[in-house]
Amino acid sequence: MKRPAPASPPPAKRAHTSSSRSSGSQEHQQHQHQRATISHLSDELFLHILQQLDYESLAIAQRVSSHWLRLARDNQVRSSLPSHPAS
């Protein structure tokens, strides 16, 4: 019984060169737009998101970074949690 030929490797990622970055092309602008992350949110909006989490999810979020820990410890977030953690 013959084994199937191994799958070809995925295509290489396109290298960014200084000329392509400085061109201001529409593709580059779209790429920059896609790079927006949760770190770009205001603290007020992020606090609102944290208020929607349960105990376990909030505990996980606190471990992401010192900034997230500081926000997760905010009284506004803590007061939104149920009085007793779920077992």
UniProtKB/TrEMBL annotation:
Residues 35-81 form the F-box domain. InterPro entries: F-box-like_dom_sf, F-box_dom. Residues 17-27 have a biased composition (Low complexity). Residues 1-38 are annotated as: Disordered. Residues 1-12 have a biased composition (Pro residues). CDD domains: F-box_SF. SMART domains: FBOX (SM00256). It comes from the Eukaryota. PROSITE patterns: FBOX. This is F-box domain-containing protein.
